[in-house]
Amino acid sequence: MMGLGDPGSTSALGGALRQQAIILTDLVVELTEAAERAARGGRADLSARERELLTGAARELDAVGAALQSFTATVQAGSARIRTLADDAARSDLVIEGSIIVEAKGPSRVDPVDRLRRRERLQELLNRVSAAQGKELARIARELARSGPPLAALSERARLGS
Length: 162
Known about the structure:
There is one protein chain. Helices cover 78% and strands 5% of the residues. The protein is mostly helical. The protein has one domain. It has a two-stranded antiparallel sheet. α1 packs antiparallel against α2 and α2 runs antiparallel to α3. The protein is rod-shaped. The two termini are 42 Å apart.
């Protein structure tokens, strides 16, 4: 996973964030029902601020969780693709070293022209996998950058009681 930890933990974190979003949304539903009962009884709605805070937090947690889970799916698909590429490379006496395709050490029985052509093709395919993972990682970075300020503002509002 490009040195970013294990996909299982990343997916679990995304799932936990999304589960918390569901819990917060359920609380909003309960508070809304209580507010409606209070209104029918002629009492004031005292939970509007809390509902707004919970709704905002749930929205942000769900968005970040979804981005983490999408990244995990991309990484797992990419890992499977890289294993296939490694097998293909081995048949041409090539190996994957990090993000490049190189010739395996030692002599080769593969025609040098075919080997070079295969190396270029495999490199192109490996680059596509890396690009897909990079795009997902950039998506997470954008989502965190976007969600950070709203979550901080919600936290500040909750802390100050405003």
